[in-house]
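INPUT
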Amino acid sequence: MSKYKVNLKINNIAVSVDEGTTILEAARQLNFTIPTLCQHDDLCVAGNCRVCVVEQKGARLLPASCATPVSEGMEIQTNSLKVRQARKHIVELLLAEHNADCTKCFKSGYCELQDISNDYRIGDHIFLDLVKEKDKERDISSPSIEKDDSKCIRCQRCVRTCDSMQYVSALAVTHKGNNMRISTFMDKPMNDVVCTNCGQCINRCPTAALTERNYIDEVFDVIYDPNKFVVVQTAPATRVAIGEEFGMEPGSRVTGKMVAALRRLGFDKVLDTDFTADLTIMEEGTELLTRLKEALVDGKEVALPMLTSCSPGWIKFQEHMYPDLLDNLSTCKSPQQMFGPLAKTYYAEKINKNPADMVVVSIMPCTAKKFEAERPEMRGSGYKDVDYVLTTRELGRMIHQAGIEFEKLEDEKYDSILGESTGAAVIFGSTGGVMEAALRTAYEIVTGKEVPFTNINIKPVRGMEGVKEASVKIKDAKPEWSFLEGVDVNVAIAHGLVNAKILMDKIKSGEANYHFIEIMACPGGCIGGGGQPMPTNMEIRKKRAAGIYEEDEAMVLRKSHENAEVTEIYKSFLHEPLGHKSHDLLHTHYTPRKRQ
Amino acid sequence: MTRIEELVKEQADKHGRQRTSLMPILQAVVGSEHYLSEDALVAIARELDLSSADVFGTATFYTFLDTVPRGKYVIRVCKTITCHMKGKDEVIGALEDMLKVKLGGTTTDGKFSLLQANCLGWCHKGPVMLVNDEVYPEISAEKAVEIIGGYLKKG
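OUTPUT
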């Protein structure tokens, strides 16, 4: 569909843009940045913070550039004296209701309100300070998310995120007038409402009204405790994003530097969640094949399609929204939670440590992982399997605090054992990755041959489309899998819970004919996780995903079943996928929850 | 199904299950229950497939959609400037004395709640008082007591 072109002038420069373009977008095309707070590329227009106001020739009022489409002959000034004056007042007004304790604030240096205030040197406090009257206690009820209303500027990015991206709407605009605030159902604590802990709201909050619960000091405490043996595991998606905390391009592959930094921070062993990602494929792939066999050969009532269980945000979403379909979820714990109990049993034994003295820390792109680690069922080792979960951002902060010059670090390798991984594990970090890894292995188990895709890159499951579908025909199945001969294995992938809902409703209505579905709570999968560096948007998610697939292609081994440490752990410890030990340590159950 | 769930279902059958059906359903529940309880809000959210926070947000925006228990008769005295100048404080004082309840409170028998309201649009005939949906303009302390006396007798 061709669009009309609209001609206008911004700061006296003529520009011709598509009809429907906003003034803000048109200005960006001319490389003029107009400050924004409520605007976010992932979200619909709100137009409520007003900092993006501009002057339009002939108009009495200053329009909000994010919410005003261009029109023919428009003449816009983005930085006239009138605009500057108005913008300063607007920011002053926001600050009058904002608890600006910047020196101790977790978001300092990352806060968009602080950035604008700094740019305009604002802080004369010409308006009445309303913070004292509004200062509510911080809500730290959730192990994942901290909510501080005294920092909130009510831009409603979180509300739009939770609604349009995640279909949860844990946060809403409540009350009115000077009492208006962003709150939960009945103003309940965050931990008591339908919240998936995905942290997408945190990722979009321009201030520190929503942040992750941070455990940096607790982790430094155990690192410096001589009686503790502290091992750290790193999720796939962190290695293509942590560089952003040090000014590097999104998608920069900095695995080796990250390992080096973790060692310099003082972790006793630097290990890899990718190892348990490979292990997840062995367990989950076997579980899928077993379910298919039970359904097709034994004629048993089996819950199909099987749903992946790696994303704790997705798990909690399903527990709240689709509790009647919990049997469809794979019983596999997420790679993080497979790592924990193995570290405190198998690994502890190998390195001759008392698991009681061990501390397992994970570095995750995720805030829901913090909640997951706290689940009462996650104590398979007899101890709390994963002690602390830090986001990519928190790790960035630790490295800054420790004065480590990240960019200059030489690459180092993960420790062994529990450090080896394949390309199949690293792609867990991007939407479609678990599916691709599972297909690479399952197809080979069934046929003895590689999946029939060029260079085993299963392109149909990749990319940023919200819901993806693919079909793989099984050809030349081995005799023991003959029942799968000629079967089209139908798979689907969704990322972002609003897309998960589309697939779940299809299952519920019976119109889905899938065998296996991968769901990730966050847009783009873990690379777009709620614990990843800010900002995030489609362009950044694509760059990080590209980094993930480059990392995969650079690996010698690209199929989970080729991981030698995985083979070894089955030989000497677990014995077989879905075996007795696996059942105790690597599998879990789920809890139906109310949807209030 | 609880009584409140039945009520909500009945109202949803009547008004529909669109987002736009939310207001009439909220109003109907307040009409019969005098306020929106947590259970009622949840029931409405489930019936309309909305988030409960969303329903709560809508309810708390409107002064007349109460989310705390209210009496059978909700008395609202206009608090804005004209009614203030015309003596709304005396009206409130008299009603507080009569009902033995503080402004904002509900009588122990659950019959009356005494509240203030923003401008009711009767500035030319202030002070004005609202009892549920009935408007009483140009009242005085004595008149207000008399009117509420009538409701008392009504039971």
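end of record. The interface with chain A takes residues 38, 41-42, 45-46, 50-57, 60-61, 67 of chain B (CB under 8 Å).
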